[in-house]
Design brief:
Elements lengths: L2 E9 L5 E3 L4 H11 L4 E8 L5 E9 L3 H9 L2 H4 L6 E11 L9 H11 L6 E4 L3 E7 L3 H11 L7
Antiparallel strand pairs: 1-4, 1-5, 2-4, 3-4, 5-7, 6-7
Helix pairs in contact: 4-5
Amino acid sequence: MPFQIDAVDVLHGEEVRVADRPGVAAAIFGPLADNAINVDMIVQSASEDGRTADLTFTVARADLDRAVSVLEKRRALIGFAALKPDRNVVKISVIGVGMRSHAGVAKQMFQTLADKGINIQVISTSEIKVSVLIAAEYTELALRALHTAYGLDTAG
């Protein structure tokens, strides 16, 4: 399966805590789209109190400062406490149509990273892709380990 590596910046979860109500996601992602800022990975989870939600999402490094500026101008309208950009993460994805019919692709990815002591900060999945955010310092180690785990470093 092919791998995709993206240099991304992240606006992290708990610091982008917003009211858990209709329209909040549109209030965040609409202005970003209106300013031609592409948002790639979006992960939302409800907080323990059930009244707020935590959002984590990625934008290209080149767009991070603009994204923060756009959202800060709408802080009162959106109702978040703070944004916490993280410039020290990378997104690694395992991509392949065969993932639909092959059980264990995600397990293999997660176990391989765990075996190398690499913490997964965020996980996002679709029918053909599993993406994780990890600390940028582990990029090379993660790539080598995953290539080996999926048999991609053998001569063909």
